Amino acid sequence: MSNINYIDIIKNIFYFIGSSAGLFAVLRPIFESKLQQDIQNARKIIERIGEDRLLYLDSSIYLHRCVSSEFFVDIDILSNDISEKKQCTRFSSHISYYFNIELKEIMNEYSNLRKYIQVPEWEPSGNDDNGKSAWYFNKKAKSFYPPGEYFPANYPKHLEEAAEIADKIKIRFLRFQALTELHYIETIFHKWTVAKLYKKHNLTV
To answer: Is 124 helix (H, G, I), strand (E, B) or coil?
Structure first.
């Protein structure tokens, strides 16, 4: 009697496995299509932001003390598109959470950065080395002078903090970019593969 029960249990297990495999095969094209659309949207956003601009943003701030106005314009347009929920900024696949959280953090840190790069500490002026308008650091801003002092003692801290925020934006951008490397099979086990992906590229936060 017990042998019969064991046989029934084994049959039920194989039936469940077969049914699950069949359901997976039916649903895979749907999930894979949504994933490809998310990756396509992510790559468009990456192109709009500009990889090179973000990779060197911290050094542009801290060392060169000059940031392209075009960069800010492009990010502001992207921010507006996100607010309006335009199709190119929406994610709907089974790993949409990861795209959304990284994009959200990019925009949050960008907002923090703009609190630093603004008048009077920075001034929009003329052209940068590429002939385009840019924001230049204003060492002479009154906010850098302690009361009764004639030396701008506070500006190094300002530059350091702004560069740190730029570095946070870069890390979030690289995490967002890394998600586009995932294969469909890897995304099925996203709770493990995404963390492994970030660790592989030294992008843990």
So the answer is: strand
